[in-house]
Amino acid sequence: MIEATLCFLLDGQPPTRILLGWKKRGFGKGKLNGFGGKVRPGETPVRTIVREVAEEAGVLVSPDTLRSAGSVTFVFPFEPAFDHHVHLFVTNDWDGEIRESAEMAPAWFPIDGIPFDRMWDDDRHWLPRVLAGKRIRAEFSFAEDNETVASASLEEF
C-alpha cells in the first residue's frame, strides 16, 4: 500500500474557496484533486505536504499552519498497485504566488460549487466533512472500473 498525502488550500475563515489542481500526468490524470503525493522513506507526512505543495502549486506552507484532517484508505481490488493510505491536511496560510506546474494546473472553486463530477468518485462523500472542520477516518473500495466506489466506511473523530 502506498503511503501518501493530500492537502487542500482554503481561502477565507470560514473557507469560501478551495484550490484544486487539474492532474496533468500520473495517477489520477485528468481529475481535479488537492495537492500532495507519496511519502518518501524517512519523510513524515507533514514534510511531504510541504515538499509537494511547493512542487505542484509553487507556494510554501509552514508545518505550523497545517491542520490534520484525518486519513482515507483507498482499496482497488482489481488493481492492488493503486492502493493508497492518504494523510489529509488543510491550510489557510501559505507564502508565494500560486502557479501551474508540470503536474498540476491550480484553479479556485467556491466551496458551494465544487465540481465533484470532475473528481474521484469518493470525494463527494468525505471532502464536505473535512471542509466543515471535521477529522475523518475513511476507507473506500473501488469497483472493477477503478473509478466507481463499490463500498465505503466513514467516521468522524
Quick overview of this protein structure:
The protein has 157 residues and is mainly β. Strands 1, 2, 3, 4, 5, 6, 7 and 8 form an eight-stranded mixed sheet that branches. The protein is globular and about 40 Å long.
Short descriptors:
2 helices, Nucleoside Triphosphate Pyrophosphohydrolase, 157 residues, mainly beta
Task: Give the SSE map.
Layout: E1 2-11, E2 17-23, E3 32-33, H1 45-57, E4 67-75, E5 84-91, E6 104-110, H2 123-131, E7 136-142, E8 149-156
Parallel strand pairs: 1-5, 4-7
Antiparallel strand pairs: 1-2, 2-3, 2-6, 4-5, 7-8
Description:
- There is one protein chain.
- With 157 residues, the chain is mostly beta strands.
- It has 2 helices and 8 strands, in the order βββαβββαββ.
- Strands 1, 2, 3, 4, 5, 6, 7 and 8 form an 8-stranded mixed β-sheet that branches.
- The longest helix has 13 residues, at 45-57.
- It is globular and about 40 Å long.
- The model has no long low-confidence stretch (mean pLDDT 97).
Strand content: 35-45%
Tally the structural domains.
Answer: 1
Q: Give the CATH topology.
A: Nucleoside Triphosphate Pyrophosphohydrolase
Task: State the shape.
Answer: globular
In the CATH classification, which architecture applies?
A: Alpha-Beta Complex
- Low-pLDDT runs of 5+ residues are none
Outline the biggest β-sheet: 8 strands, mixed
Radius of gyration: 15 Å
